[in-house]
Amino acid sequence: MNRAQLFRIHKYAGLTMAALLLVQALTGALLLYRGPAARWMDPSAMVSHGRAPLISPGAAVLQAERASPGFAVSRLFAPDADNATWLAEMRGGGGRTRYASIDPAGGRLLRAGTVWHFPVEAALQIHYRLMAGKPGMMIILLNALALLTMAATGLAYWWPKRGPISKHLSIRWSMAFRLVLRQAHRTLGVVMALLLAFMAVTGSLLIVPDLIEPSAPIVDRTPTDAAAIDRGLALAQSAFTESALRDFRLSTDRLTVNFHAPERNPRAVHRAIVTLSAPHIISATRAENNGALWMTILPLHTGNSFGVIGPILLMIVALGLLALCISGPIMWWQAKGLRRRTLARKQTA
């Protein structure tokens, strides 16, 4: 493949996906600090304000469902910090979804509504599936493949045949803006190419298993019994006595409980599945025995595997991608305008 072909592939992939990549960069940057970002952006709904005694998870489920008649809690996220709230995800007829935040101190309902009432949750749904289920996930996968293609073709197009690499990455700031922008786009893209390819590959590996897995059927739940939920959680906790609750899913007569497992990695979970009626443990799987691909890939994609510096580095990558998504179309528009002006001069000559 010659350089002209590499350039065309890089250009058209970028122009096709620039807007979507820009959205991915913005939402991804926000999600790197999901909990703190939610509390900073929306303290009225995502920060605990009370000083009353803490409520139980079952009581939080009951409070969320009281605020949204016709909806049943399908998942409840535990507070991830001392001043955080319970966050309930609820399902209703026709696959409708609502969310509710509940203050763990006293159980006051802070907010209930669609995902658009919870900006960071909306960012998550946009980033992962464009609010469109599996069709949206397929588009996100194509977007990741386009990013991988652009990283590879851009690097191959730039690769110098002779001379020091630093010379081919330098930017001549004294030149015209159009040329400075072109050089800055080139240098930023080359420097970030491997990291962007890494993000594209890990993002694809997160999406593919969910794409090929059959969608779980939506089932009607019996009325919530807060005491039964709390008993089931206590039983699940007995399998992992030293682990903190991350979240749990509710189905007709089953509770699937995830506990934090930082001893494996920052995103890993121990999982216990218990029944609600005639409570007993169906299974208890430690994180190190769980072969789910996401448990290995997610902390890489979010940077948590690399300690404190990981999310900071990926924030820089997200901002860099944002700059590339803006500068690329501007360069194309400038080149198109230059060709028009050149053609006009030739016709009038």
Write a structural description:
With 349 residues, the protein is of the alpha+beta class. The protein has 2 domains: 1-42 and 126-215 and 308-349; 217-294, Nuclear Transport Factor 2, Chain: A (Roll). It is 55% helix and 14% strand. The chain is built from 11 helices and 8 strands. The chain has an 8-stranded antiparallel β-sheet with strand order 4-3-2-1-5-6-7-8. A hairpin with a 6-residue loop joins β3 and β4 (109-113). α1 packs across α6 and α6 crosses α8 (177-212). It is elongated. The protein starts with a helix and ends with a helix. The model has no long low-confidence stretch (mean pLDDT 92).
Rg value = 25 Å
Share of helical residues:
40-55%
* Mean pLDDT over the residues: 92
> How many beta-strand elements?
8
SS-based structural class?
alpha+beta
**Number of helical elements:** 11
Keywords: Membrane, Transmembrane, Transmembrane helix
Pfam families: PepSY_TM (PF03929)
Organism: Sphingobium tyrosinilyticum
Transmembrane segments: 12-33, 137-159, 188-208, 308-333
